[in-house]
Amino acid sequence: MMIRNEILTRELIKYCNNINVDLVGFANPKFFDKYSPDNRPQAFLENPKSVIIIGLHLYDLLLDAWSKDEKKNMNYHFADSILVNQCYKIKNFLAKKGFKSKIIPYKPGLYLKDAAAIAGMGPIGKNNLLITEEYGSQVRLRALVTDALLFTGKPIHDNKYCKECEICIKTCPANAFSEGKYNKDVCLEYCQSNLDKLSDRTVLWCNICIECCPISKKVK
Q1: Could you list the pLDDT tens digit for every one of the 220 residues in the chain?
Q2: 203 Ramachandran zone, left/alpha/beta (phi>0; psi -120 to 50)
């Protein structure tokens, strides 16, 4: 029987607070078996024991901006750059304790919202986004997988927030919920066709489903 390390978990949470991580949760890899092999923790680290999910509060929409460096043909996301930097710090923290870890890339990667729900950080709302008690859906996520046996959260399956609310569904300018569930392709097509241009190189994607959520509004 594997015994999860409560002391290490507390130390890591304290470290995350010290480096200004807004949200942190821990998920058990066994709950990812329903996903394809490429989207499981085992695809990134042999014999993983825990998945670490961190979140950044989008207190200002500018954090969600994308900027393209034409010379390098590279795209940069402000919030994600902060999260990746924090992931490397966590990776180094664990390495000093003698544990292996791997920062999960986006593609292929874990389904971050689902991973956060598995970690007990919040449910998936009708807007198809994670809803956290602290920040609503105003969060961006990143994850690491590690062989450290951390205390993991209890997966959240029930959504206590949305209930009869359909504000995000009715407000969506893309009408991405017209078929009764979220349509990723419709959302993507609208977002790419309606970028909010901040400069010649920097844009914002549609964030209406985040901003209109009453739980997100409570944070402001």
Answers
A1: 577 799 999 999 999 999 999 999 999 999 999 999 999 999 999 999 999 999 999 999 999 999 998 888 888 999 999 999 999 999 999 999 999 999 999 888 999 999 999 999 999 999 999 999 999 999 999 999 999 999 999 999 999 999 999 999 999 999 999 888 899 999 999 999 999 999 999 999 999 999 999 888 777 6
A2: beta
Q: Are 87 and 144 in contact (CB under 8 A)?
A: yes
In eight-state DSSP terms, residue 198 is: S
Q: Is residue 194 part of a domain?
A: yes
Q: Are strands 74-77 and 66-69 parallel, antiparallel or unpaired?
A: antiparallel
- The Cα 127–Cα 177 span in angstroms is 9
Widest CA span in the chain: 57
Report the DSSP beta bridge partners of residue 77.
66
Residue 1 is assigned to a structural domain of this protein:
no
Alpha carbon distance 46, 160 (integer Å): 36
pTM: 0.94
Q: Is residue 37 part of a domain?
A: yes
Residue 188 within a domain: yes
Q: Which domain holds residue 178?
A: 6-217
Distance CA 39, CA 33 (A): 9
